[in-house]
Design brief:
By secondary structure, this protein is of the alpha/beta class. Helices cover 42% and strands 17% of the residues. The protein has a single domain, classed as TIM Barrel. The chain is built from nine helices and eight strands. α4 packs across α5. The mean pLDDT is 96. The site of pyridoxal-5'-phosphate (PLP) has 14 residues, from β8 and α9.
């Protein structure tokens, strides 16, 4: 059995190689370790190797894990799963980031429920680019309006865009939806939105995402094993 430490190191090397292959600084690509379905002990093992940001997809599981690890300093929690409006409060109170904003109502609730003592919640808008595996995400044509509205909410800080393309096995096919997201990202920046995060790329397609400008890859299986 390969340990988390060894697999985490291998993922870091993949990220660095992919960045260097397109003349990017490896430090410009952040790694989010997706710990959904794995116990707090797995998070601790990765944290012991210097991993700081962790991603969770299910509200209750995430909240339980955050509580279990409350005494561990320096861990940053990202919510990356679908979010229903009746579950926004614990997310607003416990996470640093939400990557899956796909409608204004969710953003408004998160902003209203974000505790005053915490910094604004960093958020990404999830876009349903062509070939999106799930049905969540705003249509590309509606992303700009949602982005401008989210920017106006006081307790949120819009950081960028996120997508989950359907699996594809050749590199060119993997790149196409990532390119679409990157072009949308550049358009929004051109409209004056101060976005710094392109959340795209997972265990099987992080090289293609980095080639298209990803600044944050969300990796579960390659670090923790098959779920
Ligand atoms: C589970 C999940 C991941 C990680 O996927 P792997 O293929 O295990 O790397 C990334 N992003 C989201 C939104 C997820 O739900």
């Amino acid at each position: 059995m390969t340990t988390i430490a060894v697999k985490l190191q291998a993922v870091r090397e993949r990220i660095a190689a992919a960045a260097l292959a397109c003349a990017r600084d490896p430090a410009s690509v952040h790694l989010l370790a997706v710990s959904k379905t794995w116990p707090a002990a797995s998070v601790l093992a990765a944290a012991a190797c210097g991993q700081r940001a962790f991603g969770e997809s299910y509200v209750q599981e995430g909240i339980d894990k955050i509580a279990e690890l409350a005494t561990m300093p320096g861990i940053e929690w990202h919510f990356i799963g679908p979010l229903q409006s009746n579950k926004t409060r614990p997310v607003a109170e416990n996470f640093a980031w939400v990557h899956s904003i796909d409608r204004l109502k969710i953003a408004e609730r998160l902003s209203a429920q974000r505790p005053q003592g915490l910094p604004p919640l960093s958020v990404c808008i999830q876009v349903n680019v062509s070939g999106e595996a799930s049905k969540s995400g705003v249509a590309p044509a509606e992303a700009a309006e949602l982005a401008h509205r989210v920017t106006a909410l006081p307790r949120l800080r819009l950081r960028g865009l996120m997508a989950i393309p359907a699996p594809a096995d050749d590199f060119a096919a993997q790149r196409a939806p990532f390119r679409e997201l990157r072009e949308l990202f550049e358009r929004l920046r051109g409209e004056g939105l101060p976005l710094d995060t392109l959340s795209m790329g997972m265990s099987d397609d992080l090289e293609a995402a980095i080639a298209e400008g990803s600044t944050l890859v969300r990796v579960g299986t390659a670090i923790f094993g098959q779920r």
